[in-house]
Write a structure and sequence with these properties.
- By secondary structure, the protein is mainly alpha-helical.
- α1 runs parallel beside α4, α4 crosses α8 and α6 packs across α7.
- The protein is globular and about 65 Å long.
- The chain starts with a helix and ends with a helix.
Length: about 250
């Protein structure tokens, strides 16, 4: 791994540690800053040496040092996923102006995915500032002009607003705002790729869950994670997918 990518991985793991705080506290409307990190079972403050991303979890063998309660695997998973995503961003974009919006989007998607999986909730406190951040960063991007970002917001929000209306509430407003945030960061073209991939992945998973009997037709399945995965794929490889698709019309 190149030094820049390795440095990005370490930074991502640190950001992932903070995202775990967001994932735990935001749905409970708790402060993200105070108090410091504590064990949810015994309430004891977590020592700094037990709060090192990834390393502390494995050194403690996944248990609280004070009470021995298990620490969920979500914590190292989020740190590792964010680290890998940051490293891939440096490989894909280099240390360029396009790197910052990619890191912001990926951080938001990691948090949204974990929260939606645990609570079937996509917080406005992530998506609404994310829409603004995506649009503002587009003003400084050589690849994405502000009109593409604005169209992405309108397209993402509009498509999912229509789905909500036509499905009679089968999809929530959180998905609509998430789609608008994705459009703000990716622009309307890559957002369409992200939505297509998200719907495709979600449909395949729904079929698999129904076929295996793990879900029934009326059981809710959070859609946010599929939109997030589709967005990550589109962020890194969507331009290639578009070129391949459009080449068929020449």
């Amino acid at each position: 791994m190149k030094p820049a990518a390795f440095g990005a991985f370490l930074l991502g793991a640190v950001i992932g540690s903070f995202l775990n705080v967001v994932i735990t506290r935001l749905p409970r409307t708790e402060s993200l800053l105070a108090p410091g990190s504590r064990c949810r079972e015994c309430g004891r403050a977590i020592r700094w040496r037990d709060n090192i991303p990834l390393l502390s979890f494995f050194r403690l063998r996944g248990r609280c040092r004070d009470c021995g309660s298990p620490i969920g695997w979500r914590y190292p998973a989020v740190e590792a996923a964010t680290g890998v995503a940051f490293a891939l961003s440096v490989v894909r974009f280099g240390v360029t102006p396009e790197l910052l919006p990619a890191l912001l989007l990926l951080s938001a998607l990691v948090a949204v995915t974990a929260i939606d999986l645990e609570h079937q909730l996509i917080p406005d406190r992530i998506t609404l500032p994310g829409i603004a951040a995506g649009f503002l960063t587009s003003l400084a991007m050589p690849r994405l002009v502000w009109i593409d970002s604005l169209l992405g917001i309108a397209l993402g929000g509009g498509i999912f607003f229509l789905i909500i209306l036509l499905s009679g509430g089968g999809m929530g407003g959180g998905d609509m705002k998430l789609a608008a945030m994705i459009g703000a960061f990716l622009g309307w073209k890559l957002a369409l790729v992200a939505f297509f991939l998200g719907v495709l992945l979600g449909g395949l998973m729904a079929v698999a869950l129904l076929a295996s009997g793990r879900r029934k037709r009326k059981d809710p399945v959070p859609f946010g994670p599929f939109l997030a995965v589709g967005s990550v794929l589109s962020l890194f490889w969507g331009e290639g997918v578009l070129r391949w698709y459009l080449s068929g019309f020449r």
